Amino acid sequence: MEAKIQLFCSTLFLYLVSVRANTLQTYIVQLHPHGVTSSLFPTKLQWHLSFLEQTLSSEEDPSSRLLYSYGSAMDGFAAQLSETELELLRSLPDVVAIRPDRLLQIHTTYSYKFLGLSTTRDGAWFKSGLGRGTIIGVLDTGVWPESPSFNDQGMPPVPKKWRGICQEGQSFNALNCNRKLIGARFFIKGHHVSSVSRSANMIQEYISPRDSSGHGTHTSSTAGGVSVPMASVLGNGAGVARGMAPGAHIAVYKVCWFNGCYSSDILAAMDVAIADGVDVLSLSLGGFPLPLFDDSIAVGSFRAVEHGISVICAAGNNGPIQSSVANIAPWIATIGASTLDRKFPAIVRMGNGEFIYGESVYPGNRLRSAKKELELVYVTGGDSGSEFCFKGSLPRAKVGGKMVICDRGVNGRAEKGIAVKEAGGAAMILANTEINLEEDSVDAHVLPATEIGYAEAVRLKAYINTTSRPRARIIFGGTVIGRSRAPTVALFSARGPNLYDSSILKPDVIAPGVNIIAAWPQNLGPTGLPEDARRVNFTVMSGTSMACPHVSGIAALIHSAHPTWTPAAIKSALMTSADANDHRGKPITDGNKPADVFAIGAGHVNPDRAIDPGLIYDIRPDEYVIHLCTLGYTRSEIFTITHKNVSCSEILRMNRGFTLNYPSITVAFKQGMKSKMITRRLTNVGSPHSVYSVEVKAPEGVKVKVKPQRLIFEHINQSLSYRIWVISRKKTKTKRISFAEGQLTWVNAHNNFYRVRSPISVTWK
Questions:
Q1: pLDDT tens, 567-593?
Q2: Do 699 and 720 share a structural domain?
Q3: Annotated active-site residue in 107, 191, 192, 215
Q4: Can you give the residue ranges of the PA domain (predicted)?
Q5: Stretch (H or E) spanning 228
Q6: Most buried of 124, 354, 405, 600, CB within 10 angstroms?
């Protein structure tokens, strides 16, 4: 009964705020953490309400406008305000910054094996106890708690430091949490006052931590799901499903709803997660890059890092556009996406006997009817969007009983299959266009279907255009492992250079993000579409959203093995141990060329080496403040980001020539600039009496000098510094901008396992 009353009150609140939403907008108001007016009030909440009392008309209750009161991720609140009220609020003392609420978007059975994770005594799982004792906080679309990936059999007790709750709501109660899924909350106020209406055919949204879209269940299980035997997607990719840190605990914070994720809700979740006691925060969401003082995730994550919490974020899916990488704060680990060497061949045999390679996880190898040769049709012309297979665009008379070609783009890949099926089509070939090239994200389609690359699509359409009665069949080949080069960079993975900070390379690393199999809720079919009546425990998804929780889980393993390490130390371990080469020992590729550092950062994550990196580049929170000063950020902007009131002129005078102790090395030569001196500091976390020598592969067009060339560490946790001089030899007048890359590696003289590698990127402007 109490839960029903709570739900009624929540619904009533949401109705009332939506009535006013047409004239009001949500703003995040940041306050001075030690404001002069704060001492006048017994609680932070009352202090926050006092600002609204001074801003609103006397007859209005200030609490009706307040959405959230923040205290951990930042000091301040989210509230609904009119333009006039906003201007009045700006003039009040202790108001540091006001930002409009922003809408962001959400960006396995084999990937742990591909990454080399196994139960051998020298591996990351053994050294970390599978992530035992570490808590991963996942900000996403919620969780399906009944999924076998969240079973707590064999899990240790909930850590004593945990202060979170299992928040009850629609179809979710306290019993849905256990020793694996130790906490769950939901944050909906920013979303509900946005006044965006749902379309009629959408899946029901649960006003609770329960996941209705599948994305959060998928990412949570990738980070920390337990072992589930005989997992597959309709028989494809069969094996034991495991998250990266199967012994870690998971806490879920639902911040994303049917229209996306609002920054006011995200900040509220980060605020609570810091207080709850998480060790790692995983955010598979974001947008385009923003200046740090305008980026709520950057602001909230700085506070998290100050509390010793590693923040792992998706780089975004706007690749291969240059400078599209998001979540670019230097204290965040920014993750791009790569491929696995697992394929799901579904080859098209054309009527002329030629073959076209495609991929699919439709279970066609089990169904005789799926292998039939059919007439092939590609419906073009008019303005109905029939070439994209929009719903209602395909005439039944033209496609009934036939195999339909659908161009990729505009509507969802699996939606096209539904449109074909509803029009009476018997099968589908999903054809990549010039935009998607050879990128091969697969789907569990509702009818026999395969996806082909752009080059193959050109061949297929040429066959159709030169044949009077074109025909084809799809040959489904199940699952094939180890026959293709991997990892390679995913086409959609967002790219650098860093738009707002040319001295920090982003993304930091890449991790598996294409065709990842992980847990799925029971309210959805494997395509996630309302028309799909099939039910599965696992499905396949692609995106930097899938890459991010791989690294969140690996960060949890490192934290379990080294609980005193800072977030910067953990990120350093991930970066300096990353692989620049694929599993065949050749440079990682991006399409048909070697991948550059703006695609892969430091390289592809390697958990067994990351858990024992030998040396680390550590960074204290106050060093990030000095770095912001070097970028020319103003006093108020730095205060907005870090809550630290500093004089940059004084800081820069005391830290002449300062460079952030980042694990990658980036130099941007401006007009007339010939050389740059960079300082780095390494801390020994390997063995005492360790000697390291430097190996440098200089970027083309520069000379690189390093002093000293040997580092002799007498004991563990000892730190030693070295200097790098990067000297330009390039004539810059011939080209307006150019780029070169190399690497610097510290190699242990007695143990070649310890190779501490930093990419070097150089640009001329």
A1: 999 999 999 999 999 999 999 999 889
A2: yes
A3: 215
A4: 374-459
A5: strand 228-233
A6: 600
DSSP string over 491-542: TTS---S-SS-TTS-SS-EEEE-SSEEEE--TTS-TT--TT-----SEEEE-
The CATH number of the domain holding residue 416 is 3.50.30.30
Q: Judge whether 276 counts as a catalytic residue.
A: no
In this structure, the answer to whether residues 465 and 494 fall within a common structural domain is: no
Q: Regarding beta strands 710-713 and 690-697, do their DSSP bridges make them parallel or antiparallel, or are they unpaired? A: antiparallel
Is residue 337 within 8 Å of 510, Cβ to Cβ? Answer: yes
Whether 237 and 307 map to the same domain: the answer is yes
Measured CA to CA, the distance from residue 553 to residue 242 in angstroms comes to 11
Instruction: Examine residue 401 and state whether it is found in any structural domain, yes or no.
Output: yes
Looking at mean pLDDT, say which of 178-182, 669-673, 699-703, 747-751 comes out highest: 178-182
Q: DSSP letters of 171-190?
A: TB-GGG--SSEEEEEE--HH
Are residues 145 and 231 both part of a single domain?
yes
445-466 confidence digits (pLDDT tens): 899 999 999 999 999 999 999 9
| 741: CATH | 2.60.40.2310
Q: Is 562 a catalytic residue?
A: no
Taking the model in full, what pTM does it have?
0.90
In a domain, 501, yes or no: yes
**Domain-ending residue, one of 453, 478, 503:** 478
Which helix (H) or strand (E) element contains residue 420?
A: helix 413-422
Q: Is 11 within the bounds of a domain? A: no
Whether 310 is covered by a domain: the verdict is yes
Sheet with strand 471-476: strands edge to edge: 355-356, 346-350, 471-476, 374-377, 403-407, 427-431, 449-452, 358-359
Q: Count of domains in the chain?
A: 4
b vs e for 291-307, b when ≥16 Cβ sit within 10 Å of the residue's Cβ?
bbbbbbbbbbbbbbbbb
| pLDDT, tens digit (0-9, with 9 covering 90-100), for 676-701 | 999 999 999 999 999 999 999 999 98
Whether 359 contacts 540, CB under 8 Å:
no
Contact call for residues 688 and 734 (beta carbons, < 8 A):
no
Domain encompassing residue 47: 25-100
Cα four-point dihedral sign 33, 34, 38, 43: positive
Catalytic position from the list 94, 140, 271, 443: 140
Same domain, 398 and 522: no
Question: Does residue 545 have an active-site annotation?
Answer: yes
Neighbours of 2 (CB within 10 A): 7
| Neighbour-count burial for 707-738, b at 16+ CB within 10 Å, e otherwise | eeeebebeeeeeebebebebebebebeeeeee
Residues 6+ apart with CB under 8 A from 39: none
Question: How do strand 480-481 and strand 509-512 relate by DSSP bridges?
Answer: unpaired
